[in-house]
Amino acid sequence: MKILGRKKLITPVIIQTLKTHPVIVALIALLVMFSSLYPERFLHPLNFSSILRQFVTLTLFALGPSIVVVTGSLDLSYVGIWMLGGILVWLLMPILGMFSILVIPVLGLGTGLL
Q: Which residues cross the membrane (predicted)?
């Protein structure tokens, strides 16, 4: 398609990509924006390793509920136990130190016995 003798800048392929993959387009736009705003810090290898470490943790926590939703059983009560365990570990960490992590199996055992 031509407009005033010039090739149209937005082709149908680009429009289709924007419609079918908006999240990927948004991530690329954010990458371009932050790399242009903070080129010396954003593109640093330490920043990428930090982003990947956080991404892995979030992905592992999201994988469990995703499998439950995909299989059709929508009982997500264990997510509440995860959140309660995380909050209790955060509150008990100054008092018990690393032993506060034992709260999570105790919560699981208590829930299982119900």
A: 21-39, 51-74, 81-107
The answer to whether 107 and 84 are in contact (CB under 8 A) is yes
Closest among 98, 106, 105, 100 to 87, alpha carbons compared: 100
The token pair that represents 82 in the structure block: 């995860």
The pLDDT tens digits of the residues spanning 64-74 come to: 778 877 887 76
| Kind plus residue range of the DSSP H or E element containing 3 | strand 2-3
Yes or no: say if 103 and 88 are a contact pair by the CB < 8 Å rule: yes
What does the alpha-carbon distance between residue 86 and residue 89 come to, in Å, rounded to a whole number? 5
On whether residue 95 sits in a domain, the answer given is yes
Interaxial angle between packed helices 103-113 and 77-96, expressed in degrees from 0 to 180 and rounded to the nearest 10: 140
Domain count, the chain: 2
pTM above 0.70, yes or no: no
- 79 versus 35: the higher-pLDDT residue is 35
Assess contact for 108 and 80: CB atoms under 8 A: no
